[in-house]
Known about the structure:
The protein is 24% helix and 22% strand. The chain has helices at residues 2-7, 21-37, 43-51, 66-82, 136-154, 206-215, 250-255, 259-269, 271-280, 290-293, 306-321, 363-373, 435-447, 534-543, and strands spanning 99-103, 129-135, 160-167, 173-177, 199-200, 224-227, 246-249, 303-304, 377-379, 385-387, 395-400, 406-412, 416-423, 463-469, 483-489, 501-506, 525-530, 569-573, 578-581, 593-599, 605-610, 613-619, 623-626, 631-639, 644-653. The longest helix has 19 residues, at 136-154.
Amino acid sequence: EAATLAVLPNAPALIHPGRNRRALKEKRNRLLDRLLAQHKIDSLTCELAKEETLPDEPLPLPRLAPHLLDRAFVEHFSDKRKGLRSTFSSPQPPPKGETTVFPALISPPSEGANPRLSPPLEGAGGRTRLRTTINRNLQEYTTRTLHRHHARLSSNGIRNLAAIIVEVETGNVVAYVGNVFSEKNKKHDHEVDVVTAARSSGSILKPFLYGMMLDEGEILPQSLIPDVPTNMDGYRPLNFHESFDGAVPARKAIIRSLNVPTVRMLSDYGLEKFHFGLKKMGISTLNKPASHYGLTLVLGGSEVTLWDVTNAYTCMARTLNHHYPHNSKYDARDWRDLNYFYEKKHTQTPEHKLADAPTRMGTGAIYQTFETMRQVERPNSSGAWHLYESSKRIAWKTGTSFGFRDAWAVGVTPRYTVGVWAGNADGEGRAGLVGVHAAAPVLFDLFERLDTGAWFEPPYDDMVVVDVCTKSGYRALPTCENTEGYYVPSRGVEAQACPYHQIIHLDDNEEFRVHSDCENPSDMQHEKWFVLPPLEEFYYKKKHPDYRVLPPFREDCLATLNENKNRPMQLIYPKPNAKIFIPKDVDGELGKAVFKVAHREPESIIYWHLNDEYIEKTKTFHEVELNPEPGKYKLTLVDEQGGRVEEFFEVLGRE
């Protein structure tokens, strides 16, 4: 061994135990022969030394969790300097051999070194050991799983992948893969820890808005939300497949991750309230005022980290798990940051009191949110929706950022939360980089290894039974056709009553509508009727063949009809006081603006007027192409029953 070590410094780059082993052995033996010739050793010692084998090829240092090692090193000694005391709960001792231990492989810093990157180390010989909550078996399985999916995704130019697994009860991180770490991936930012990187959220925050609105009685799970072309101060959200359903239940908007209904929900709830609520739930990257993000906050207009998002869902699950053990009360400490240091503890004191009111979200709203997330659907290429089948009960949600730069998937069970991110660390977008295809398969593969246990128990103490209109999903009124009792969060009793049912009056034959100015009330037939506004109805009835359109008014009732109350038309485009810009087509010719209107009776004739000048009439398909000069205009529509709509708009230019 001494002879081998003696010859290595002469050519360490060319001859070492890892390569050119034959040359190394020959060089060692020549040294032994010289030692024999100089009578430093005898012939027996020389022969025995030559028979000794060379040391084995050195093995690479283990890289079980390289990104967490870097993070732990910096954060541990940063906390030491600040004298911070931990506020994390004490984890249960892990099974023998299940905890990863990081030995310090870094020497004490040299003079002039960056103190943050090279803090003074403690322990014998200037070394330290950081014990983490990482489960070695889960860590290795997670790493293998990500490498397998990385091979699939990299063929489409998706080169980075990250995931964490968290125990709900303790908040301990049991698997942490900050990126796919390999020599082949070396050129593609594999050193970047994406778990802590701020990335566009996509739709991953939608369930938080849904839960907040349920918690405050703003909506019920079945409440219909408009899903129609929408323009809010120049912002026009679109659904993934750029189609509209007219109106969808709020829970379906989350299940199918529809953008338009969600933006309308945010507008109704309040942007500032949602922004404040997200910060309370631990989303630490919202460092700008709500107005900076606007209504896109719920669609990916903000940046979040995989760490924060996974933690928020974990805290929701922990709060729900503690509903019955805490006798329907709330512990503010259920909302805390994730932990990966095994030594960190939180001492529970007898003086600690539970609260009657939640600090963030009630258990009834959390349960309803998870129940909705459990039924999340995925789109196929044709735009149809299907349940994403899994052998386990998992509440999950995906997200895709604008430009296909980030794909997210988060799943929650009573025992574990799993968060997955896929994309490119440098921000490069790729077609097909969507959460349901890139991140969700990884999520479900990881859950296959986890014992998720039984599903959450319904927190009946924080829910009430409310009669709900089966058509509209709102709190039922006597005017509703059919009602059914549903468990909803406790403040669901304050939810809006059904706005879509009304009593209509029909003639004796129940063929035409009538009113008291043209028909004796004693001769009328009264019926409960589900009526959507014309614009919602235009799209809704295409997806719901059972939708009953309002019968027309009898001819003799039209003259005295209250137009404002029974308005049969509604403009789809342009919106009131819209400002229109008409660009050139690809061939260089000036394009045209397509004006469109919805009518309860499509077969009716509509007469179009621009600045009180007649243009044309339409029937069945009520669309007109116009190319007006820049200026302000009044559009007037009159149908054959005398119904009238007037809207103003402005053309800004045509080039």
